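Weekly puzzle thread! Below is a chain. First person to post its structure in token form gets bragging rights.
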Amino acid sequence: MRIDLHSHSSVSDGSQPPADVVRRAHAAGVDVLALTDHDTVAGHAEAVRALPPGMTLIRGMELSCRLGGRSLHLLAYLFDPAEPELAAERRRIREDRARRARGMVERLERLGAPVTWEMVQRVTGDSVPGRPHIARAMVEAGVIAGMDEAFTREWIGAGGRAYVPRYALDAVMAVGLVREAGGVPVVAHPRASRRGYLFTDEEIARLAGAGLGGIEADHPDHTEADRAHLRGLAADLGLFTTGASDDHGEATGHRLGAETTSAEAYEALLAQATGAVPDIG
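Winning reply:
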């Protein structure tokens, strides 16, 4: 089986609607796909309706967290979306994302960049606004040549001239909330240093003590040395390791299925989930 446990649709910051993500994954030979949009479950129903016969969807999300004063992303799989505490936190994060996006657009305007909120809304559509949407609007306005240029101190990178901080869950608390909702928490790309995600073994061990289920080891932004180290750390902590494309459509070059999870790790994930079951086409 080809199992890809991290993907995004236009419900958050991917470029394709959920149904298209499912179709592209199927065309790429993916048998099991997790749809993990940022802080929302809004794309799940559409993705399920688009499942071809025999393909499996894992309902998930990528939860915005903070650990040690830094942004950490937590993948949550097969949780009960109606669990009230986790649902309330999702709502709070989404509402703050909109506040933050407006604030960054205002700062860009003060810096002389011809980016308006209306432009960002056209890019965002009905999804949760985020920095990638602002970056796309900046490219369309001719402020920058490519999206990567936006994520610097010159513009909307951490600490940048137009950067605005946002609300994020304490990561240890988030692990507990996902578990209480019957879900399985996995730390996303913990060694993607190019993107600002670099967490120590001790920090990951702290999450493991709170109930973390796994570590995303095989990720496009991880080196071979990172992957080997994370596999060893997971074995020491009694965690499973996953692999995933973290596909965002056009922004990441349509790479669904580029990294995959082993059948053994997938079975370990399913064994721990009590909040929901996979959807099978």
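Puzzle host: Confirmed. Bonus trivia for everyone else. The mean pLDDT is 95.
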